[in-house]
Amino acid sequence: MVDDDIDVTDLDQLLWAMLTRTDPKESINFIAGAWDSPADPRLPPEKRAARDMTHSVAVIDACRPFHWRDKFPPANTPSAEVARQARERFGWLLDSPAPS
User: Fold this and answer.
1) DSSP helix/strand/coil, 50
2) Structure pTM?
């Protein structure tokens, strides 16, 4: 789960929210016995053979803490236009292979 300022289709934003808005001990819940699809490659062969299509799921709350959301530091991110200009000017640095 994320706040409405996070674009869930942008992996960088999702990871940023998880890194800056979660406390692993308090923000991650596990659900055992969640139904799954046979297409999941992580289902063990024994479970497939028994037609047991269940596994565990992690729910990560990457939202600002509700009880002190008004005191939570504001996001320090560039506007979409500034990010576009930076990528246009310096994108070659991001796209170049890592030094070996």
Assistant:
1) coil
2) 0.64
Please count the residues of the chain.
100
End-to-end, the C-alpha distance of the chain in Å comes to 37
The C-alpha atoms of residue 3 and residue 81 are separated, in whole angstroms, by 21
pLDDT digits 0-9 by tens, 53-79: 999 999 999 999 988 888 988 877 778
Q: Which residues pair with 31 in a beta bridge?
A: 57
Three-state DSSP state, 100:
coil
At residue 23, the 3 state secondary structure works out as coil
- Single-letter amino acid code for the residue at 1: M
61 with 25: CB under 8 angstroms? no
